[in-house]
C-alpha cells in the first residue's frame, strides 16, 4: 500500500514538472515578437518626430504668409477680415 502511494506521488510530481516546462521555441518566438514590437515603436517615434517637425515648419510658413498679406493689404489700403 505504501509503495503504491509513493509511486502515485512520484507520477503526480513528474506530471507537474513536465507540464510546467515551457517550449523553448515558443519562448524564442515570444522574445522575437517583443523585439519586433520595440523596433516598430521606435520607428513610430521617429515618424512622429518627422511629422511634428513638418507641422512646425508649416506653421512658420503660414505665419510668414499672414504677415506678408497683412503688409500688402496695409500698403493697398484694403481692410482684412477679422480672424
Describe the structure concisely:
This protein has 83 residues and is mostly helical. It has helices spanning 2-20, 24-75.
Structural summary, described in words:
This protein has 83 residues and is mainly alpha-helical. The chain contains 2 helices and no strands.
Overall pLDDT score: 87
Q: Approximately how much beta-strand content do the residues carry?
A: under 5%
Beta strands, count: 0
The major β-sheet equals: none
Low-confidence parts: none
Number of helices: 2
Structural class: mainly alpha
Q: Which outline best applies?
A: rod-shaped
Q: Report the radius of gyration as a whole number of Å.
A: 35 Å
How far apart the termini lie comes to 95 Å
Offer a few descriptive terms.
83 residues; mainly alpha; rod-shaped
What topology emerges from the helices and strands here?
Elements lengths: L1 H19 L3 H52 L8
